[in-house]
């Protein structure tokens, strides 16, 4: 059997992959489970197909996984001989092998090989959930695992979780072990908020000129011993992304087109577009210049890092 398992939600991709491997009566460490990197310079589809056509050693079936099959995208292609070999195999696959194309790859639906795969493989697409679907997923998982939260506890949890199922399931394990019902304070102590999420909120406070919010968040980060130099680098990275997204929006590109151009996660582009309301390209460049000057001042020891960062926030967000 052939499978096409693609998308940006790594947790659901891996769950589906493990399910298929399990159905073959083996596991990911078995000699009958073989992984190939489709991005490797040494990758050869001929070698993959040889493995598929070789009988399994210890099980009734074997599983061959091509991780990151970039040759299905618009960026890269197989050679003509490789293409013919793969087409021939897909039309007459080994009865005792599962060939899986797996990873976060955007396929080029115009390609003949992609069309052939879609007609000769079971296809699964797992993209990052929308915010509403993510909330529904979290609620269902909490109920299934008998995790009880007060209303303000659940609101606090959702405010601390990025839209990432991988991260959520790690935090879910802690909540299951906690046992008793959790309120807002319990969640705040148990669930750490990702630094990237704090930086996103800090950017929004700066963009919306919310000095009070920006300073409050900075104080929280300072208590957690976050280095201002590191925060400056993260802020600069985020504002560079905002500038790039704004440029592409002005050119008339849509959200998915921007994501493909910048080669970043779709969620980051969505968040950037939300942050851009009220932010001009000129102001974005001014902030980037201020961050570059602040970084140099820190590294040359010209200013106290805590005071310098606070002054930057006040001047930029006023």
Q: How is this structure best described in words?
A:
- The protein has 318 residues and is an alpha/beta fold.
- The protein folds into 3 domains: 124 residues, P-loop containing nucleotide triphosphate hydrolases (Rossmann fold, 3-Layer(aba) Sandwich), CATH 3.40.50; 60 residues, Helicase, Ruva Protein, domain 3; 123 residues, Up-down Bundle (Zinc Finger, Delta Prime, domain 3), CATH 1.20.272.
- Helices cover 59% and strands 8% of the residues.
- It contains 15 helices and 5 strands.
- Helix 11 crosses helix 13 and helix 14 packs antiparallel against helix 15.
- It is globular and about 65 Å long.
- The termini are far apart.
- The mean pLDDT is 89.
- Its EC number is 2.7.7.7.
- GO terms for molecular function: DNA binding; DNA-directed DNA polymerase activity.
- This is DNA polymerase III subunit delta.
């Amino acid at each position: 059997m052939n499978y096409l398992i693609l998308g940006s939600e790594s947790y659901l991709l891996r769950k589906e992959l493990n399910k298929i491997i399990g159905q073959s009566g083996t596991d990911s460490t078995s000699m009958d489970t073989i992984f190939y990197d489709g991005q490797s310079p040494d990758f050869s589809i001929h070698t993959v197909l040889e493995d598929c056509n070789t009988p399994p050693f210890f099980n009734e079936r074997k599983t061959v996984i091509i991780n990151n099959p970039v040759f299905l995208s618009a960026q890269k292609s197989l050679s003509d001989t490789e293409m013919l070999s793969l087409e021939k195999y897909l039309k007459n696959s080994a009865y005792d092998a599962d060939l899986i194309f797996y990873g976060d790859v955007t396929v080029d639906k115009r390609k003949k090989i992609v069309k052939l795969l879609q007609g000769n493989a079971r296809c699964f697409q797992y993209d990052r959930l929308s915010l509403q679907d993510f909330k529904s997923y979290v609620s269902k998982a909490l109920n299934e695992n008998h995790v009880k939260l007060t209303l303000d506890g659940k609101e606090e949890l959702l405010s601390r979780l990025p839209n990432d199922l991988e991260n959520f399931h790690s935090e879910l394990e802690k909540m299951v072990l906690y046992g008793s019902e959790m309120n807002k304070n319990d969640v705040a102590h148990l669930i750490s908020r990702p630094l990237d999420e704090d930086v996103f909120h800090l950017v929004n406070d700066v963009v919306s000129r919310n000095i009070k919010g920006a300073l409050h968040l900075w104080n929280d980060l300072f208590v957690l011993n976050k280095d201002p130099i590191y925060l400056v680098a993260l802020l600069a990275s985020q504002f560079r992304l905002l500038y790039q997204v704004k440029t592409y929006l002005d050119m008339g590109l849509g959200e998915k087109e921007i994501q493909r151009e910048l080669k970043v996660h779709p969620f980051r582009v969505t968040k950037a577009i939300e942050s851009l309301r009220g932010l001009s390209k000129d102001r974005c460049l001014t902030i980037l210049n201020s961050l570059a000057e602040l970084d140099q001042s820190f590294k040359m020891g010209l200013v106290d890092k805590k005071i310098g960062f606070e002054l930057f926030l006040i001047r930029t967000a006023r």
